[in-house]
Amino acid sequence: MNSSPSTILDTIGNTPLLPLRHVVPSNGARIFIKLESQNPTGSMKDRIALAMIEAPERDGRLKPGGAVVEYTGGSTGVSLALVCSVKRHPLHLVSSDAFSKEKLDHMRLLGAKLTIIPSDNGKQTEKLTKDMIREAHRIADDMGAYITAQMKNTDQLDAYTRMADEIWRQTRGRIDGFVGSVGTAASIRGLSTRLREHDARIRVVGVEPAESAVLSGGPTGAHKIDGIGAGYVVPLWHDRIADELGRVSTDEARAMAFRLAAEEGLFCGTSTGANVTGALRLAERLGPNATIVTIMCDTGMKYLNSFAQSLD
């Protein structure tokens, strides 16, 4: 008999892997999507929030009851708020009005204190990202708090190593391609590294916003795909992570998110829409005998207000 979880944190991970059936091309590769929306806060970031708190707890960087600070576009903040609530760490988050109100409200309801940095008309830009980082470090210094600093935190890579092992078991080792969007680069770095340890032939495609495709040599720019595309080359990124980079626009990502809801019953955010768009492109090239895995990063409930406006 499986033991019952002792806290909500014990339910993080071991999420289902589901085949896409209707949005995929008839002559393309099979596409499976990892339902990270099944984590407690509805996001894959629950995995890394737990890793970024438990590692410093173990080695003494974070003391019992010690305060934590982070800058966040939303999902990491919600996940940290959950973990810190259970583990009794006061949490101060720096975010922006560029990100969904649902996420900001969720952070507050889980007990986090928020500092909001104003954006340029809701746009996600390099300047906004760096302003948030700067403010978070200032607050951490003033408080004497532990800053998780997700943009350069390597503790989180262990969480994605475990996730890659889940994917390998669920596919029974039959995987030819992996597609993932790039925010901090932790997920695609951790996942691709471990998957290639299982099979070096797996083709990895990174996805970035077409409006700010800096990793593939484009100019920095504004976009509205939550959680990806920082607008500059982030510290955890290096060119060996992905075999290729794909560009997906905000409009393409949003349209695919809507298609996934209507055709697959998967209510997801725009980063998932970007992932699946990239996976469909790879599926057409690899052909019907191949298997591709991508990620449902979070639930669309985090974007319900903004999505509903598009339906009017």
Automatic annotation (TrEMBL):
EC numbers: 2.5.1.47
Essential cofactor(s): pyridoxal 5'-phosphate
Alphabetical list of InterPro entries matching this protein: Cys_Synth/Cystath_Beta-Synth, P-phosphate_BS, TrpB-like_PALP, TrpB-like_PALP_sf
Species of origin: Paraburkholderia solisilvae
Primary gene name: cysK
Superkingdom, natural source: Bacteria
Keyword field: Amino-acid biosynthesis, Cysteine biosynthesis, Pyridoxal phosphate, Transferase
The protein's name: cysteine synthase
Family under the similarity heading: Belongs to the cysteine synthase/cystathionine beta-synthase family.
